[in-house]
Amino acid sequence: MVRVLVAHHRWGYGGGETVFYYTVKALADAGYDVTVSTVDAPDFKSYEDIVGESFPSNVMLVRAIPFDIKIFTIYKGLLSWIEAYRGSYDIIVVTHGYPLKLTGLKAPVVYYMHFPAILTVDTKWNYEFSRYMLKSPSRYGFREFLESIPFWLYIKPYTFISSRLYRYLLEVPWRILVNSTYTLKALKYTLGMYRCCYDVISKTEIVYPPLPRLEELTSLRGGAREPCVVTIGRFSSEKRYELVLETARILRDIEFYIAGGVYGRASRSYYNKIKRHAPSNVIVKANIPHDEKLSLLSNCTVYLHTMIGEHFGIAPLEALATGATPVVHTLSGTWTDICLENNYCYGYKKTNPEEIARIVEEAINKPKQAPIEHIEKYSPEKFMRTILRIVEEALLDKH
Which of 81-90, 130-139, 200-209 has the highest mean pLDDT? Predict the structure, then answer.
């Protein structure tokens, strides 16, 4: 029996977890001997919440390390490749993590790249990532300079490691999968930055993350909607929910909802901050049940997504599937691949609340809707067929 290692460094909620789950399911259902390697302790409930079904039971679970790491999360991804050297596998599929040392492996590697991790600290690619930059006291003031020091110290070793080992990540995999044309563009930028591995693009393929519960979501289309705005996603600072609050202060007659998951101390702190500063027309909710999320998505006309540089965006895709009209930043995979730019969504280029408020009003007055054929491009069944094809091609090429 063919032995497959699926490496995924964390368990949780989001688009990366749908890729992980349906990769494991596809391989297990096809009869492969699947081992799952993670850094975090398994959290089966999160997958039941995401996809509405249990995690496959016919797989073996191993921990890359025997203890939990609650901090330095970006560094945890560097550990996801450890099991590849401990066991004997016919093929390795990395669905989340930054396995920078993949040399010396005999098995072919398929690497799903959600985004070139090194670019999350590159302000030339996207100045909005400047939270990791050491800020000049003369330009930003002494207080912002001091506040930037911990972030800079946190990320500097990672950039040092990445700059020396990144080429190995790009050269070794038999196939690299990316989640959007936006991420593919970022990968090309990375190749230019390191002046290496230009043949990587020839072995790169866009494979969209699957949308769980697709039929349930699309069944909500066509009903009457209220002129309200909903935002859904985990409570984390890069989601920039402050923009929702500032937009809501301009549109006082419109009701806004922010609903998302709270996981860990930093997430709880951010949730409390958003809830504390929310104006009266913003309702902030944490860890809502699935049925309540569906109710919000089916009731509100507009879905507002305030993250900049979103690699793909499962939450906006969920909203689009239900018939809501997303408003998203144009620097994102959401805009290029889910919205097909102006076809199914509204986009904003500047992060000022006045522009967003104007576009939200326009979306409420002139909503857009994607055809069901477009939504079906993201079906779990299509994703699983694609993963099986790629794995089978890699195994044939190996022999």
Answer: 200-209
- How open is the CA angle 165-169-174, to the nearest 5 degrees? 155
**Domain at 133, CATH number:** 3.40.50.2000
b/e burial code for range 60-91 (CB count within 10 A of at least 16 → b): eeebbeeeeeeeeebbbbbbbbbbbeeeebbb
Tens of pLDDT, residue by residue over 153-182, are 777 777 777 666 666 666 667 888 999 999
pTM, full prediction: 0.90
For residues 131 and 121, give the distance between their C-alpha atoms in angstroms, rounded to a whole number.
8
How many Cβ atoms sit within 10 Å of the Cβ of residue 42?
Answer: 13
pLDDT in the model for residue 384? 98
Q: Is 205 left (phi over 0), alpha (psi -120 to 50) or beta?
A: beta
d(CA 243, CA 249): 10
Tokens of 23: 């990769």
What's the structural domain count of the chain?
Answer: 2
326 touches 319 (CB < 8 A): yes
Q: What is the mean pLDDT of residues 131-158?
A: 68
